[in-house]
Write a structure and sequence with these properties.
The C terminus is likely disordered. The protein is mainly β. It is globular, with a radius of gyration of 18 Å. The protein is 10% helix and 33% strand. The protein starts with 20 loop residues before the first strand and ends in a 33-residue tail after the last strand.
Amino acid sequence: MTDVDYSSPSAQFSANVNRYNLFTKDRYNLINILGKKQLNTLENTSLLDIFLSRGNIVEPHYHQNAAELVYCISGKVTVSILNPFTREVTDYPATPGEVVNIPQGWWHYEVADVDNTHLLAIFDAPNPEVILGSDILTFTPSNIMAKTYCMNENQWNNVISNVKPATYIGPPADCRFTVNPHHLFHQPHEQYIPYQYRPFPFY
């Protein structure tokens, strides 16, 4: 049963997603958000509007309160999902018009295969919640991580020293390492002919 008062003067029925930024790495890599906090008549749906350039990654994460449907608007993305039942990571490439479904609570990440990749992530919850890999790595006490996995604590701290909480889109702009995006996946992909329409976010 809805708790929305549709007769209220404050009821909102439209919104501009471009006004609600969740995270910006640069003008080509950003995430906008729309949930009930932004549009108060929403019920069990919300979305993230995601723009990525080639090789950029929506960091590993999971959504504790919602399943996610990733729709590719333009470009090409590879969505990688850890299936907790098979304990395997599988890569799912998507081009315009294709979708990838991510069940609630499953660990996953997205990698842009080409520039000007534009995705719509749709959730079955009024506001998407997330637990980020960067937050897990940085907020879990280092002595717990080191002891759990039989590691030297100083070594662990050195390994994660460049990890920043709430990374959202990596690698960081000042990253000194070059990674071939085609080396990021677990299985070969078909040859891809780039989609011609390349929209940019409006400012």
